[in-house]
Amino acid sequence: MSVLIEATAPPSVEPRGALRSFLRHRMGVIGAAMLALAVFVAVAAPVLAPYDPYANVRVSILDIYQAPSGEHFLGTDDGGKDVFSSLLYGARVSLIAGFAAAAIALFIGGLVGIVAGYRGGWVGSVLMRITDFFLVIPDLALQIVLVAIIGPSLGTIIFVIGILGWTTTARLVRSQALTVRERKYVMRARAIGAGDAHILRRHILPAVLPLMLANMVLVISLAILSESTLAFLGLGDPTVISWGQMLNFAFGRGAVSAGAWWALLPPGFAIVWVVLGTTLLGTALEDALNPRLKRHHLEAAGSDVARGRDVPTLDAPTLAMTGSSADASPILRVRDLSIEFDTTAGPKLAVEGVSFDLNRGETLGLVGESGCGKTTTVLGVLRLLPPGGRVVSGSVWFDGDDLLGIDGPALRSFRWTRLSLVFQGAMNALNPVRTVGDQIAEAVRLHAPGTTKREAADQVAELLERVGIGRRRANEYPHTYSGGMRQRAMIALALSCGPDVIVADEPTTALDVMIQAQILELLGGIARDFGTGIIIVTHDLGVVAQVCDRVVVMYGGGVAEENQAATLFREPQHPYTQELLQSFPDLAHPDRPLRGIPGSPPRIDDMPVGCRFAPRCPHAFDRCGAERPPDYPAAGGRAACFLLDPEERGS
Amino acid sequence: MTEPLLRVEDLTKEFAGRATFGDLVRRRAVPPVRAVDGISFELRAGEVLAIVGESGCGKTTTGNLLMGLLRPSSGRVMLEGSEVGALSGRGLQKLRRRVQMVFQDPYESLNPRMRVHEIVAEPLRVHRVATSPEDLAARVATALTSAGLTPTDAYVDRFAFEMSGGQRQRVVIAAALALEPTLLVADEPVSMLDVSIRAEILNLLSGLAREQGIGIVMITHDLSTVAAYADRIAVMYLGRIVEHGPTRQVLADPKHPYARALLSVVPIPDPSVRRTPVILSGETPDPSRIPPGCRFHPRCPLAFDRCPTVDPPLFDVGPDHQAACLLVEADEHKQ
Questions:
Q1: How many CB pairs below 8 Å do chains A and B form together?
Q2: pLDDT at res. A324
Q3: Which is it for strands A389-398 and A401-402: parallel, antiparallel or unpaired?
Q4: Which residues contact B158 (CB under 8 A, 6 or more apart)?
Q5: Which of 10-49 (B) contact A at CB < 8 A?
Q6: Over 80: is that where the pLDDT of B299 sits?
Q7: Is the torsion defined by CA of A15, A17, A20, A24 positive or negative?
Q8: DSSP code of A441?
Q9: Nearest-CA distance from B316 to chain A in Å?
Q10: Chosen from A512, A548, A605 to mutate, greatest number of chain B CBs within 10 A
Q11: Is A568 helix (H, G, I), strand (E, B) or coil?
Q12: Residue A439 Cα distances to A499, B99, B141, B301, angstroms
């Protein structure tokens, strides 16, 4: 699972990651450059401008609305002043108004948001109602009224824009403060004895500030736009030059009738330039800093199967397979499956050459520590790999069809009718506003369109009883169900279309032992009664011992060992299996000392050349560091370890 | 006998019940939810007590009461002679230095924006313990060393996301150790970790108890993880301790039917061990509707006629071993 977490982790947790993801937004870089140019022009206006627009010069009628020339790049305005110089100086006023108003808005918004989010309670409610109130008032109308009452000046404009522009910031900050307040690390800080001031300073602010930074840029652009609007409407300070003011004068004083486009277009263009720049920058920053805008991996639509995938033929590699059901043709055959993920260091293999079979009615355990590729393997089989992950080689044969070769609707119908998924978080995957029975009935009717309502209701009742939920509870909503019952309901949902295979990813991890025992008994019964093949992905060998017929132990993206469950527990062949068993608490032998496996599984960007387990293996020798061991038959199963090589044994 | 490190006397915690719409309409009084219902136990320095039970049994509420994060409705929590629930302000602040908590989820309980040294130094800063920056650094290094994160230099500048789950949990433990507490409350300290690293963390905790004399209360739903580490086990069901005794005895000869069932479903990594798990049907009932008589009787495979009417107290069933079951009472009379 950690492979997935690493691949999709929200960048906000990693400052450097945020910078990188910002730079990836070319638009954001362009926006930043556009804004930087505007700021540079504003600062350097006295140096760059050929004339001082504030200086009193005597003008003749001939100087008014002069067309652009070598002397005046952008012509002159109604007062005979150089438009180019006014434009440069106008940047100062427009940007100062924008920045100052944004600062006020951010201060108010940040304060309101943090207090409302962190303090909560009635104070929070009152503050948020006030925010809503400000949000619904038309800004422009109120701004005009306020400026008209107070009297137009640059200060007034800044003030008015500032006190009306804070609402979005307040809402954004509040929701972030609310989330962080509930985080475990804030609770831990409280348990340490930390006061509010400490928590606000050390935990809330650092989480809120990046969002405010992104928001700031957007508030600035709005403020600049507001200032221009007000000035254009004649509510600006007439003694200072801003872009809006330039437009106002040009319009009011006959630029249109004089055909003097040069007095109108440049200030308009300048406003668009800055607003566009800030918007581009703001959007990119928001993308990079706001984790909520990340896509969920199940929404991934792009192709998760590489185009040039090698497809081994079915009969080519046969496995050293054992067991009573080995003759019957397996329902699922995974052969040489390799999956790669894009990492910062380029694509890396997360799963390499994984092969296994699943027979009908069989329960197969896929075991290993987190980060060993178990979940990635099943997501690859189910074609649900997150973005950045793809199957590069291998095949998945499902009852004779190559699952990796189909796409679109065919794949969708396959996924639910023949292959169902129950996963750990699925307990929260029920729709809270519809009854459980309703949701199961929907699945039943979706896949068998001819079913009448009554037939569907009967089937729902049957399914619920099969998973141990009384039929009368079909009409209840998921929130009245406990965690264990929701997991049962999910299993009923998975069963609703009579699948051939159910994949259960850590189906009991968040549950109590007693509930875990109930769910495992249920899954075992389903395999027995319906002949469904079940794959249980887990890190818990106890779960495997309780229900699995056969076990595939994965390590570092490959199969370390495969065998019948009973044999595997009695005679583990691979040192990794042995170590894993050693670290499992065993109440049957409470005196056996428990020890963990020192170190952790290899990361996908740092895979050992030889045996993947060699760095942690107590029996590793020279060959293990240099070569990757193939599968050797052992104890009726197979294990990838040189200790099992007949030649090594001979020496 | 000297005063134990921790003494819990008849501790009870009630929460206000949540009224449904029907309750409001009928003006029906809403019964309080009794999450913890009169539990008592003691813990000596250097001892590890495991509180075991399913969700809804009140074990986490008990932990919060021990931490002083909640105030008891009645009963007392005495830590080194002072009453935890009676403290407020400065007194509570001082208490917090002596009781620290290890949280369940090392992925969530570390601030992703802070480096390890900041995380471990945080409690020291909050309580203004360090006398100088050098002292602060030294205390952080000591805590990291105690938590097994050595060489400390290799860890102090890391962020949580740069570490494995086991390392993160060690950082959580180091932060708890920074204030040199006398009592650690560990709420499911390993349930989010891979099985392969659970042993390390549990070995670390029990080592702290043995070597530094810290008392540890370990709260868990999983008997197997504490079997090798706890000195004593208290099994909780619906707010009560139903069985309490030395780990060996409770595991070898559980007396309460609930403890037996809980033990029977613990997975054993050996399919050849034949046993019949007692899988109880249903789940722990809602603590706002505690069954009359013995609270376990509706799910008990051995319940008889008296169980729905008599609420059994804890009976002695062996040295320092008690169980709250009428069947045990019957045995006691026979002897």
A1: 186
A2: 39
A3: antiparallel
A4: B115, B116
A5: none
A6: yes
A7: negative
A8: H
A9: 25
A10: A512
A11: helix
A12: 17, 47, 55, 35
Asked if A269 and A186 touch (Cβ cutoff 8 Å), the reply is no
Q: What are phi and psi of B234, to 5 degrees?
A: -120, 120
Which H or E run includes B220?
A: strand B215-220
How far apart are the C-alpha atoms of A524 and A506, rounded to whole Å? 15
* Domain range summary for chain A, segments of one domain joined by +: 18-55+76-293, 320-418+499-650
Contacts of A584 in chain B (CB under 8 A): 195, 269
Is some CB atom of chain A closer than 8 A to the CB atom of B128?
Answer: no
Q: Which CATH class is domain A320-418+499-650?
A: alpha beta
Tens digit of pLDDT for each residue in B175-216?
999 999 999 999 988 888 888 888 888 989 999 999 999 999
pLDDT at A256: 78
Domains of chain B: 6-276 (3.40.50.300)
Q: What is the pLDDT of residue A427?
A: 58
**How close A470 comes to chain B (CA, Å)?**
11
Question: Is it the case that residue A275 has pLDDT exceeding 70?
Answer: yes
By CA distance, what is A15's nearest residue in B? Answer: B113
List of chain B residues whose C-beta atoms are within 8 Å of the C-beta of residue A516: 265, 267
SS3 A391: strand
Which CATH number applies to A18-55+76-293? 1.10.3720.10
Q: Which residue in chain B is spatially nearest to A585 when comparing CA positions?
A: B224
pLDDT 10s digits, A105-147: 999 999 999 999 888 888 888 998 998 888 888 888 888 888 8
> Which residue is associated with the tokens 């254009």?
A232
Distance in Å, alpha carbon of B235 to nearest chain A alpha carbon: 14
Separation between Cα atoms, residue B267 and residue B272, nearest integer Å = 12
Residue A403 CB neighbours (<10 A)? 25
Are B144 and B82 spatial neighbours (Cβ–Cβ below 8 Å)?
no
Q: Which amino acid does the sequence have at A432?
A: P
Average pLDDT over residues B306-316: 92
Q: Is the pLDDT of residue B308 over 50?
A: yes
Digit-coded pLDDT (tens) for A579-616 = 988 888 877 777 777 778 888 888 888 889 999 999 99
Asked whether the beta carbons of residue A190 and residue B273 sit closer than 8 angstroms, the reply is: no
Q: Chain B closest CA to A18's CA: distance in Å?
A: 12
pLDDT-derived band at A369, boundaries 50, 70, 90: confident
Least confident of A34-38, A74-78, A97-101, A639-643: A74-78
Which residues from A are below 8 Å from B161, CB to CB? 9, 13-14
Cα-Cα-Cα-Cα torsion A16, A20, A22, A23, nearest 10 degrees, comes to: 140
Chain A contact for B180 (CB, 8 A cutoff): no
Name the minimum distance, in Å, from the CA of B29 to any CA of chain A.
21
Query: What Å distances lie between residue A43 and A49, A408, A449, B194, CA to CA?
Result: 11, 57, 70, 58
Q: Encoding tokens for residue A161?
A: 């824009």
What average pLDDT does this structure show over A426-433?
72
For A194, which residue in chain B has the nearest alpha carbon? B126
CA distance A228 to B9: 71
Q: Which chain B residues have a beta carbon less than 8 Å from that of A207?
A: 113
